[in-house]
Every structure is written in C-alpha cells, then in structure tokens.
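Please, structure for the following, as tokens.
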Amino acid sequence: MKHLILLSIVCLSLMTIYADPVAPVYFSEIQFAASGWIIEFFPAMDVFDADSAYLTTKKDTAYLKPGCIRAFDYSLITPDSLFSELRIDPENDTIRLYLNISQFQIEHNYADDQLILGNLPFDSSQSLSRKVEYGITGTDFWYVDNSPTLGFENDTENATGTINFQILDEDGFPIPVAGLYSGIRFDGSTWGDTVFIYTDSLGVLVHTAYACFNRFLFMKEGYTNADTVLLVKPDGVYSIILTMESQEQGIEFTNRPAASKFFLSPAYPNPFNNYTTFSYRLPEEGFVVLSVYSVNGRQVAELFRGYHYAGNYHVTWHADGLSSGIYIIHLISNRNSVQRKCVLLK
C-alpha cells in the first residue's frame, strides 16, 4: 500500500510539471542577412518572467536583455538583444532557448525549444521558417522561404515548389487513380502537413510542396508502392516519373468489422514499467503513422508506418532503453490526429 501511494505521488508530481504534454514552440523564423542574424520568436503561450532567458549554440551562451520575448507577439532577436556575443554557424549548429520558468528545467538543463541548422541549405536572401499546427505534437517542420516575413506570420508565398508526377506501370502505361501520400520529413522520420490525392486518367498529378525535404509515396491496390524523397527548393519546378509494378492477385486479407469512430485508447497499465498496451480504431482505410514522443517533442519510437484497412488494432509498446518520464503516443491517419499520455517508471 505504501508503494502504491508513493507511486501515485510521483505520477501526480510529473503531471503537475507537464500539465500540457505538447511541447511549446518559440522559434518561428531565422535569417542570416548581410548585417547579421535575425531570429523571430512567436510564443503562443504566456512566457511568464523571461528576463532570465538565454540562448546557447555549440560555441556560446548569451542571456537575452529584459523584454525581448513577448507572449502572443512576433519578437525579433538580433545580436543587440543579447548581453554577450552569440556565434551561430548556419551550416551546422543547434540554437537552444532556455526560459528557466520551472525548477525542473533548471535542474535538468531542459531547453524550452531548439532550432537545428544544417539540414536545409538557404542563403542570405532567404529565411528558414517554421510551420506549426499548435496543439498537435510532431506536426511542425521547417522550410525555406524566398520572401522572409520577419515580424509577421509565416506564409507560403515563394516558399513552395511544383512537382509534375507521372505514374506508369512496368510496361510504360499510365496508372490512373494512384494515391499520393505526401508528408514532410521534418526530423528525418516523422511527417507533418500530410495530404492524400490521386493521379488523373493519364497517370499525371501536379502537386505543390513546401521547400524542404519531402517524401512522396504512391499507393494503389494491386500495385507495389512507388516511393521517392526530394529536396524541393522555393519556386522550383520538377518532373518525376515513377513506376509501380502490378502484383499477383489472390492476396488474402482478414476482414475486420467496420469502425465507426477514429479512436486511440488509454495505455494500460499506466504508469508502466518496461511495456504497455493500447488499441486504436480506424473508421476508414488509409495511411497510418503511429509514433511515441518525449515531452520535448523528440520522437523516441515509431511503432507503425503503412497502409491499414478500417478496423480495430492492438499494440504493445516495449520502452526498452528509455528513462522514466512522460511520453505521448501519437496516431495520425487521413488528416485525423489523436494522442495519449503515458508515464514510464523504472
């Protein structure tokens, strides 16, 4: 009984620290102009007393002057906004923001947000901008913008490219109604801003995508998938021909009862030690991504990525190699998104 009470106290303490499991977002845009670097913050939440905030890079640490970061407003940070020099390498660096608004963050050196540089090339006339779906973990990503919007809301003008796809079979004939699943690989494995559209009668599809690394996956029943990754540049135009091979018929699928609602069950047990189980329900077939994130938005596991029929699915997650803490199970399918919180105690 004593151990059970102690376990409950630990869980409640963790929940208090992170009442909202979605990691906050602060970095919004960055540009390396001829006069120096400019960083845009847009905190979509109260920043409390940010007068002790500081930034770090691989080389330096610098405190921000009071009043630099304002909640629910676009704040521009330049070298003049800091008490000391902050050297930033645009080709290989990580900028971290520390607000120190809780004792936990101070004791564990927990960064409130970070910006990784070097994955996407951009020059002094361009900016690196962030697209964010507030309230949904794992859906933000960075893209290159030919017309920076520092001080204002990020947009898509001069920040997308056009891809002309044609999908053919192994004999060179067009494949109509091949479905394109397009998503942004913002951290190398997880997608955001996903769409699902189809080729026309000539197997042609014209698609507009953000200027960043994009993965394009074409699917159609009876054919193998066609998959490609492309670094789209702002205002770029591309032509891509992909081949999907026909598959032999007679593949047997297990029929599942129709599901009425998109649903992700709570994990059980929760809190858990080593492994936990949960179920999810899909009301319609589609591409599914099932992932697990830490509270700071880092993906720690990808449990499934692929095509699912409508129905109910059961999952066991083994959290080997992970430390105690709060984790978020995140399910995405056909523009639906849901997440559940669970606590690992070792």
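Helices lie at 2-17, 103-108. The longest helix spans residues 2-17.
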